[in-house]
Every structure is written in structure tokens, then in C-alpha cells.
Amino acid sequence: MPLLEVNSLTVDYQTRRGSIRAVDDMSFTLKKGEMMGLVGESGSGKSTLGLSIVRLVPSPGIIVAGHLEIDGISLLDASEEEMRSIRGKKAAFVFQDPMTSLSPVKRISAHFVELIRAHEPRIGKEQALLRAKATLMDVGILPERIDDYPHQFSGGMRQRIMIALAITLNPALLIADEPTTALDVIVQSKILDLMKGLREKYKMALILITHDLSIVLERCDKILVMYAGSFVEYADSMELHTNPMHPYTQGLLRSIPNVELADQKLEAISGSPPDMLSPPDGCRFQPRCVNAQERCRMERPPILEPEPGHFVRCFEVKE
Predict the structure, then answer these.
(1) Distance (Å, rounded) from C-alpha 319 to C-alpha 314?
(2) Helix residue ranges, H only, the chain
(3) HSE, side-chain direction, 13 A CA sphere, residue 250
């Protein structure tokens, strides 16, 4: 049985200008211990999908349809009190910007103690601090720094603290939303390697949300590609790398620079993502697709499985 099941999930944002369908009929599963990359351009719905799994979609967003289940628990049927128990223990979320997630007036120790005792009130403060120090060591931060304030740490170290907070209750699933944003390339690599190591040590599943396909190709077991709120391709990382079937995935791969090729010519995907207040008819990607046919402009392609475990939404693909 999979750890996470997402079936026909649909999320809307009700704005003054109209309704925006940020996530449209999304379905996938994730096994225990698997690492999945969730990839797409800014505005593709990746963060909304991740937040939906822990029921933290910000207002005016609302889950309008679908089914979410983690470890046999229906998340959409759970009360808010039940969800507070599920968040942290079953599924944890690492937000993009640690400075907006960590209170600037609280020491790091206070963040850990409040989190641990909220879920396990029988644990005393000293026990909570011992657990917090051990978790900080797992992410490469000296335990004696536990009484420092967030501003006393670098961006990369603050991100490590956020990851430590997320794993301190040993969740079955960790969702990390652009965890390397605003970090330099070397720190990015260290954070990603750290998360991969923690996933193996804690035996948890991991969803890594990013706009950069190159980041997840080598580190993730599976990759799900989103475009304009819609599913376009889902496969094992190696299969997706060697046999991309959707034109959008192919374009993303062609835009990845190769440092071993001195005369490489990078290819950009022409055009821009659509206005989600008035998305195009048919296939969402068809205005930018070089292979678009009349049918693509009229009908929405079905999700096909041309190879076992390789799913794609495109008329050009034959099952």
C-alpha cells in the first residue's frame, strides 16, 4: 500500500478577478521511503499541491475536489484538530523562506520545545532540548548554538534548522518547497545532499518541489512534471531523463546546461505560461508547443501509460 495517495485533486483560488484553478485533477502515489521531485515553472501549481497535502492552502484557496490519503488516513475528512496532530508526525512541510517561518524574537530552542511538547505534552523541557540538540547535529549544526536567535545564522544554516524542525517528530513524509532558493550553488548542493541522507536515515518519503529539473534528476526516484496547474508527465528519474515524452519535459531537459560541453547551445522554451484566469482551451501547453495540432487546441489530452510506470498527458504519445 502506498504511503501517499493523491486522486483527482483540484484546488481553486477565488480572487476578485475570477476563479483560478491552481491544481487541476492531479493524481499520483508515493511509496514509503521514496523521493519524488515535483517540477515546473513558477506559477505551475507546485507549491499549492504541496500545501494541499498538509491542508495548508492559504486563503482564498480551497480544495474543491479529490481525495488525499496518507498512511491510510483520509486527510480531507480529518478535522482541523486531527490535522494538527498529523502535521509534524505524519507529514511535515519545509517552507521556502526560513526567515518568515522562524520567529525572530524566539531562540531556536524555543521553536523546538514548543513543537515537541505540542505533540507530546508528557515530555519535559529538558528531554525536548536533548532531542532538539540531537536533531540539530543530524543537520550539521553544533548543539551549543541551540540558544541562538535566527538572525545569528546564515541562510543555509537557517534552512538546516527548518529541516531539523520538520524531521524532529520523525514524519513519514517530508515536503520541501524550493529549499535551496536564494542559496549559492555550493550551499544548494550541500542542502540537497543533506536531505537525501536524512531521508535514508529516517526512512521517510520526500517530495522536493523545485523549478529546476537538473536538481532532482540525480537525487530523486521519481519525477512529476507540472504545467499550468496540470499533470504533464510522471516517471522514474532515469526513464524521464532518457525517454522524455511530453514536449514540455523535452524542452526543460534541453535547457539544462552541461559544463562538459564548451560549445553547447541552450534551447529556451518559447512563449510564456498562460494567464490562469483564462487558460487556453485543450492542452494547456499547446500555445508554446511546436508539435501542436488542431486537436490539441480543442480537446484536453488524456493521461496515457505508454511504458509501465511512465505516465504522460499528450496526444502525440501512443499507449
Answers:
(1) 10
(2) 46-53, 80-89, 98-101, 108-119, 125-138, 155-167, 185-202, 213-217, 237-242, 247-254, 294-298
(3) 13
What pLDDT was estimated at residue 317? 84
- Angstrom distance (rounded) from CA 232 to CA 163: 29
What would the pLDDT profile of 278-300 be if each residue is shown by its tens digit?
A: 899 999 999 999 889 999 999 99
* Least confident stretch, 36-45, 136-145, 259-268: 259-268
pLDDT in the model for residue 264: 66
Euclidean distance between CA atoms 127 and 123, whole angstroms:
6
The pLDDT-based confidence of 97 (bands split at 50, 70, 90) is confident
Which value, in Å, is the radius of gyration of the alpha carbons in the chain? 20
Task: Please enumerate in sequence order all residues whose Cβ is within 8 A of that of 225, keeping only pairs 6 or more positions apart, or say none.
Answer: 39, 40, 213, 231, 232, 233, 234, 240, 246, 248, 249, 252
Average of per-residue pLDDT across 85-106? 88
**Domains of the chain (ranges, CATH numbers):** 4-90+171-241 (3.40.50.300)
Contact 73, 32 (CB under 8 A): no
Coil, helix or strand at residue 144: helix
β-strands 303-307, 310-313 pairing? antiparallel
pLDDT at residue 85 greater than cutoff 70: yes
**Kind of pairing, strands 173-177 and 205-210?**
parallel
